């Protein structure tokens, strides 16, 4: 009698005796009948295992470690994870890809792919990890997974995404050892790293804003903007515009414009990214320059043009910041 005779058969196509020459047994006792050659192609781990001399079937308390006449390889992953990994290993035309609907599913399959050296599977799941479906909804969770698995490009992408809003508070803190919940808690070192990264990004963005004169050529302002900026109107200028850095084309910023940029500078402390510069443009124009006929006619186009260019410059400045 086999020690593994109480296992559950996997879902098709991994349940056919004619479609496998070895059995993978998951941690929850699901039997997957697969071909050695496909496993060897997908995984150096299994390739090396199959090259080793194969012993006679082992026995446990007088029972063999066979399923039928097939050798069994015990896996530490559960059946759902093994099924997903195998579907990525098999030809796409013959086996549909799994529906990985949660980050927990993604993390477990990704961890297994890394463990067994399944580079093709790993690359596909890494792309899925930072897809908009997960990155937009759960960037902090994505960051936690990426840092735990030492996936630096994905960690950086998630950290950049987290710049779009204040960090969720309170952030959970990790406890020691095995008490850290997988993918949902940030170890203290990673949390500190994230905060320091955000601080450096804020500094880079605010420094750019304080040096608009030097950034002027890169902002690619149109001639229409130049005409509007340098033309006289009823709006007062602000005496500290030069000190604040809000002087371009040799002309002080209008007071309402400088006040708007003050607001952008403060907002960058909470969300140091280019999108911050373009928020509430309609509200800015409506509330700040309604009393000036000239500004009222042209300010919306000028603010929109400048905000769009400034957003690009902020993103470029932040892009240079290392995580």
UniProtKB/TrEMBL annotation:
Looking at the UniProt entry, the stretches that span the membrane are none
Ranges for domain BTB: 20-90
Top-level taxon of origin: Eukaryota
Which SMART domains would you find in this protein's record?
BTB
Which CDD domains does the record cross-reference, listed alphabetically? BTB_POZ_ZBTB_KLHL-like
Q: Which InterPro entries match?
A: BTB/POZ_dom (IPR000210), SKP1/BTB/POZ_sf (IPR011333)
Gene3D superfamilies, per the entry: Potassium Channel Kv1.1, Chain A (3.30.710.10)
Q: Which Pfam families match?
A: BTB
Q: What protein name does the entry list?
A: BTB domain-containing protein
